[in-house]
UniProtKB/TrEMBL annotation:
Keyword Membrane: yes
Record field: transmembrane: none
Matches recorded under InterPro entries: IQ_motif_EF-hand-BS (IPR000048), Kinesin_motor_dom_sf (IPR036961), Myosin_head_motor_dom-like (IPR001609), Myosin_TH1 (IPR010926), MYSc_Myo1 (IPR036072), P-loop_NTPase (IPR027417)
Cellular component terms (Gene Ontology): basal plasma membrane; brush border; cytoplasmic vesicle membrane; filamentous actin; lateral plasma membrane; membrane raft; microvillus; myosin complex
Protein name (Swiss-Prot/TrEMBL): Unconventional myosin-Ic
Amino-acid positions noted as binding ATP in the UniProt annotation, renumbered to this chain: 144-151
Pfam families reported for this sequence: IQ (PF00612), Myosin_head (PF00063), Myosin_TH1 (PF06017)
Provenance organism: Sphenodon punctatus (Tuatara)
Superkingdom assignment: Eukaryota
SMART domains: IQ, MYSc
TH1 domain mapped to chain residues: 890-1064
GO terms, biological process: actin filament organization; cellular response to type II interferon; endocytosis; positive regulation of cell migration; positive regulation of cellular response to insulin stimulus; positive regulation of protein targeting to membrane; protein targeting to membrane; regulation of bicellular tight junction assembly
Length: 1068
């Protein structure tokens, strides 16, 4: 199954480190944070690539090569953790792997051991959970060579608890102190060695106390075997304890001045034995700051710190104390300055100190004997003092830290004070060097003891499990190393007893006499050899001063040189005395007066260690153990390098093969029935897809179907036990194949299901949208109706109240009426001046309507006027004048109204040229043919009437018959009837004038209007009823009588008057 068509929830793939990419492609549980978890079984199919994650699943479990190959495969894939059952094997990666984040911590929290890939956190969490649920004390034993990662593992476990454990009232401080005690202990107890830049030079057991809620509330530390010799000597490439360099690098000027120190480590003999005071990978200045801060967190007052640093400084000064021999060969101090500083820093008397350094005081038969020391002895005494001071101060420091970590029981009511304890042991594993001495002997002895514990506890728990599962106990063949422990620690016959005896014996005991004694006492022991006891062949590989122990993990050859001295750890009495009198409070506590008075010899180092170990075993025995075995992949502190020789050596001395053998003696694999059935049920038709009966029976059916042979498995009460990994692998492979076909089926089913689900979803959505839309439409319609009803109601109300003053009942109506009137008006405005239509306004708008109407008219007139041409204007002016003169006064006026006035009725061509010449410049404004009636006989004669700017001219052909200047035109008379006669009255005084003229024009209104206007006689047109009088040239008078008749008749009447009958017009 590839990544694409995966059936199972897919997580983010992070490339090579992704477990899926490593072949863990089968389904796994999903962690609370969504990270894919793999079960151990899931990883089985990836075994070719990344090996098995539990060594018990190695087919060839007795083969060291297969073991190492599995480690190598995993190491190459950055999988540094592997189980042997519940033992965790860890290979130092020498690089930061991103597997310690908070997310990782969460992933392991509360998860069953085998559900997740192997990790330190799984061990930590498992122990913590057992502690909480079973309320049984736990311990985690971490062992391995120097540089294998023990201390890192310890720190990581502490961090895990600090992050994941619940918080209790005062827990924050305890958590801090637990974490902060580390840098302080490391400063004083760690050093750069060839193997590890931060090598712990002491063994450490740390208890963490948890309260009933599971919160850490206290702690306690036990320390073992501080490597004191480092204070005075370091091998090439190694350093003294970090604190010395940190103080010199980081200490403030003022502090260093007080301590009498210079900033340069090269000044101090004790710091330069290894010739590498400066190391690039270590930042002493920064570390100093960390330590100073940590000291305050763990309750150190300024005074405490000052006292402590005074001691550190005094060790440096002590290292610089030099001697010279006097004549007798006795040592004398040559460096007074150093003595002065020492005296000040230790609060001792300079002279006492000086004397104590060069003399030896012994008590023989109750008398004090003082004897001088030679140079060699003095140097020895000085170094012994430095070691003692530093070593005891270290113990004091641990005690002081313990006080600050102590669980304050009194602060809790008793029902809450029941605590459980989780111990962390960080101690060197087997040490096998080219040259092994007393220290290696102690350490390896410690490891034998731990192996004893492991065997006892593992076998015990195995046995318990078998019993509780009701499976017959099958004896396991394993090597019980009790015989070696006894060889070392047995009373009287053990190596330590013999060593002590040699140390205490009066006389000339030496390392060699000790070896002889050993040979005598334990010569027949199968695990003990010396040069003398060995056979010919083996003897070649041993020196005469050596003895060899066949440890369970392998053989180690020890040189006895220095054993007695180191075991005695002697400090001359007078130096002790000087220290007892010290005023430095720490030194004072470290050197107890009772030591001086006590007659009994102090316990030797080996015995002390034996006792503390036996105490430790007791502590550990009372707890449920977990194991972490650390392996260093190479000596160069390099990442990615897998040095097989080195690793084989460690696998051997860590006893891992032996671990595996014990673990695998019975069954390789065991699981609860539920878990087993759940995983493999698909392999059997009867159990797939569900098994309704008891899981126990389901598994029975399942394994029968799978064809397990009876010797391959056992059915316990709650678990199935499978003896060989290959049985499990076969099952796992079958599952893998089965999964392919299941996946196909499930995919098909899933697709069908998915599509149906999707369809149903869409259908549901469509219905939802439809109903929603219908609802919306309905609501809109209802709202519209409501609004309509409201409007109608307002209308009716408004109509009823329409004549009331404006009030809430009618305001809407009135506004509406007003509005609609105005809108209607806007649409129906009169189109032109003659259009008199106008909508009828509502009562409230009558006045406004009138104003608007006037405005509108004004506007139309104005725009009409703007459009009038000059000719038309003239026409209209003339028409207006005509109207003023004739309207309602003369009968034939109405007929003239619709006829346009013509500019002139005779063109210039119709007028005789002589006349035109006669007029000269005078232009003819108007010309019309007229009939002239003689003044006497009223004979009608055709004439032309011309109007110039100055006069009316009567023309007959070429003759200008009469010219009447406008000034002489007195008036014009005309009848009110429909005739077209008129009289021009001329001024009489003028002799040249022939008198008034009687004329007739077919266009009488036009002609008279033009004459009146040209001559400015508009007001002098008389319209007469009945008759008109006129004068003739000689002052005589004529009369024209007008009557109406049926048709026009103009003739001289009998009375001499001119009688005019004008036809009656209908309009009148
Ligand atoms: N899990 C780890 N991941 C990364 N580096 C590690 C790890 N464990 C150890 N180291 C490296 O190895 C060095 C030595 O580890 P340390 O725990 O001090 O060894 P030991 O206590 O066994 O002597 C550390 O300083 C660190 O650089
Ligand atoms: Mg360490």
């Amino acid at each position: 199954m590839g990544h694409q068509d995966r059936l199972w929830p897919q997580q983010n793939c992070k490339g090579r480190r992704c477990l899926d990419c490593l072949g863990f492609s089968s389904p796994g549980a999903i962690g609370s944070n969504g990270i894919r978890l793999t079960t151990m079984e899931s990883a089985l199919t990836a075994r070719d690539r990344v090996g098995v994650q539990d060594f018990v699943l190695l087919e060839n479990f007795t083969s060291e090569a297969a073991f190492i190959e599995n480690l190598r495969k995993r190491f190459k894939e950055n999988l540094i953790y592997t189980y042997i059952g519940s033992v965790l094997v860890s290979v130092n990666p020498y690089k930061d792997l991103e597997i310690y984040s908070k997310q990782h911590m969460e992933r392991y929290r509360g998860v069953s051991f085998y559900e997740v890939s192997p990790h330190l956190y799984a061990i930590a969490d498992n122990s913590y959970r057992a502690l909480r649920t079973e309320r049984k004390d736990q311990c985690i034993l971490i062992s391995g060579e120097s540089g294998a990662g023990k201390t890192e593992a310890t720190k990581k476990i502490l961090q895990y608890y600090a992050v994941t454990c619940p918080v209790s009232d005062q827990v924050e401080t305890v958590k801090d102190r637990l974490l902060q005690s580390n840098p302080v202990l490391e400063a004083f107890g760690n050093a750069k060695t060839l193997r590890n830049d931060n090598s712990s030079r002491f063994g450490k057991y740390m208890d963490v106390q948890f309260d009933y809620k599971g919160a850490p509330v206290g702690g306690h530390i036990l320390n073992y075997l501080l490597e004191k010799s480092r204070v005075v000597h370091q091998n090439h490439g190694e350093r003294n304890f970090h604190i010395f360099y940190q103080l010199l690098e980081g200490g403030e000027e003022e502090l260093l001045r007080r301590l009498g120190l210079e900033k340069n480590p090269q000044q101090y003999h004790y710091l330069i034995k290894g010739q590498c005071a400066k190391v690039s990978s270590i930042n002493d200045k920064n570390d100093w700051k960390v330590v100073r801060k940590a000291l305050s967190v763990i309750n150190f007052s300024d005074n405490d710190v000052e006292d402590l640093l005074s001691i550190v400084a005094s060790v440096l000064h002590l290292g610089n104390v030099q001697f010279a021999a006097d004549e007798q060969g006795n040592a004398q101090v040559t460096t007074e300055n150093q003595i002065k500083y020492l005296a000040r820093l230790l609060g001792a008397e300079a002279s006492v100190l000086r004397e104590a350094l060069i003399n030896k005081k012994i008590i023989a038969k109750g008398e004090e004997l003082v004897s001088p020391l030679n140079l060699e002895q003095a140097a020895y005494a000085r170094d012994a003092l430095a070691k003692a001071v530093y070593g005891r101060t270290f113990s004091w420091l641990v005690n002081k830290i313990n006080r600050s970590l102590a669980y304050k029981e009194a602060e809790y009511p008793s029902w809450r004070s029941s605590t459980t304890v989780l111990g962390l042991l960080d101690i060197y594993g087997f040490e096998v060097f080219q040259h092994n001495s007393f220290e290696q002997f102690c350490i390896n002895y410690c490891n034998e003891k731990l192996q004893q514990l492991f065997i006892e506890l593992t076998l015990k728990s195995e046995q318990e499990e078998y019993e509780s599962e009701g499976i017959a106990w099958e004896s396991i063949h394993y090597f019980n190393n009790k015989i070696i422990c006894d060889l070392v620690e047995e009373k009287f016959k053990g190596i330590i007893s013999i060593l002590d005896e040699e140390c205490l014996r009066p006389g000339d005991a030496t390392d060699m006499t000790f070896l002889e004694k050993l040979e005598d006492t334990v010569k027949n022991h199968p695990h003990f050899l010396t040069h003398k006891l060995a056979d010919q062949k083996t003897r070649k590989s041993m020196g005469r001063e050596e003895f060899r122990l066949l440890h369970y993990a392998g053989e180690v050859t020890y040189s006895v040189t220095g054993f007695l001295d180191k075991n005695n750890d002697l400090l001359f009495r007078n130096l002790k005395e000087a220290m007892c009198n010290s005023e430095n409070p720490i030194i004072n506590q470290c050197f107890d007066r009772t030591e001086l008075t006590d007659k009994k010899r102090p316990e030797t180092v080996a015995t002390q260690f034996k006792n503390s170990l036996s105490k430790l075993m007791e502590i550990l025995m009372s707890k449920e153990p977990s194991y972490i075995r650390c392996i260093k992949p190479n000596d160069a502190k390099q990442s990615g390098r897998f040095d097989e020789v080195l690793i084989r050596h460690q696998v051997k001395y860590l006893g891992l093969m032996e671990n595996l053998r014990v673990r695998r003696a019975g069954f390789a694999y065991r699981r609860k029935y539920e878990v087993f059935l759940q995983r493999y049920k698909s392999l059997c038709p009867e159990t797939w897809p569900t098994w309704d009966g008891r899981p126990h029976d389901g598994v029975a059916v399942l394994v029968k179907h799978l064809g397990y042979k009876p010797e391959e498995y056992k059915m316990g009460r709650t678990k199935i036990f499978i003896r060989f990994p290959k049985t499990l692998f076969a099952t796992e492979d079958a599952l893998e194949i089965r999964k392919q076909s299941l996946a196909t089926k499930m995919q098909a089913a899933w697709r069908g299901f998915y599509k149906r689900k999707k369809f149903r979803q869409m259908k549901h959505s469509a219905i939802t949208i439809q109903s929603w839309w219908r609802g919306t439409l309905g609501r809109r319609k209802a709202a519209k109706k409501r609004r309509a009803v409201e409007t109608i109601r307002r209308f009716i109300k408004g109509f009823i109240y329409r004549n009331h003053p404006r009030c809430s009942e009618n305001e809407y109506f009135l506004d509406y009426i007003r509005y609609s009137f105005l809108m209607n008006l806007k649409r129906n405005l009169p189109k032109n001046v003659l259009d008199k239509s106008w909508p009828i306004p509502p009562p409230s708008l009558v006045e406004a309507s009138q104003l608007l109407r006037a405005l509108c008219m004004q506007n139309m007139v104005w725009s009409y006027c703007k459009r009038i041409s000059p000719e038309w204007k003239q026409q209209l002016e003339q028409k207006v004048v005509a109207s003023e003169i004739f309207k309602d006064k003369k009968d034939n006026y109405p007929q003239s109204v619709p006829r346009l006035f013509i500019n002139t009725r005779l063109g210039n061509e119709e007028i005789n040229t002589k006349v035109l010449q006669g007029l000269g410049n005078e232009a003819i404004k108007y010309a019309v043919p007229v009939v002239k009636y003689d003044r006497k006989g009223y004979k009608a004669r055709a004439r032309q009437l011309l109007l110039t700017p100055n006069a009316v001219v009567i023309v007959e052909e070429a003759k200008m018959k009469q010219r009447i200047d406008y000034a002489n035109l007195m008036g014009i008379s005309v009848s009110s009837l429909s005739d077209s006669l008129f009289v021009l009255h001329v001024r009489c005084e003028d002799n040249k004038q022939k008198g008034d003229v009687v004329l007739q024009s077919d266009h009488v209104i036009e002609t008279l209007t033009k004459i009146a206007m040209s001559a400015d006689r508009v007001n002098n047109v008389n319209i007469n009823q009945g008759s008109i009088k006129f004068t003739t040239g000689q002052g005589k008078e004529g009369i024209i009588d007008f009557t109406s008749g049926s048709e026009l008749l103009i003739a001289k009447a009998k009375n001499g008057h001119l009688a005019v009958v004008a036809p009656r017009l209908n309009s009148r």
